[in-house]
Design a protein that fits this description.
89 residues, two-stranded antiparallel sheet, rod-shaped
Length: 89
């Protein structure tokens, strides 16, 4: 009877050891992507800027560029760019 209890205990503790090793490694893999690097600020996808002619905010990457007096200015559309350039004359 004692042999049966000892055998059962060895099987049980062996199972627990294998389970903790196997599932501990899996849990570690699942946790790694969730860890964030807080030493660097999150990157900005795009910056919203204001059109100097109509006052509309738009993503800078979608803007129409104009180089006026050595300064790069962004507009929401070609129409706003043309209106601004006409006022500058």
């Amino acid at each position: 009877m004692i042999r049966l209890i000892i055998l059962w205990a060895l099987i049980y503790f062996g199972y627990r050891a294998i389970k903790s090793i196997m599932f501990g490694a899996i849990a570690q893999q699942k946790r790694e992507p969730l860890q964030k690097n807080y030493s660097q600020p999150p990157s900005v996808i795009d910056v919203m800027i204001e059109d100097p002619e109509c006052g509309v905010y738009f993503p800078k990457k979608n803007g129409v560029r104009a180089n006026i007096n050595g300064k790069e200015i962004f507009f929401c559309s070609n129409e706003c760019k043309q209106k601004f350039l006409e006022k500058q004359k």
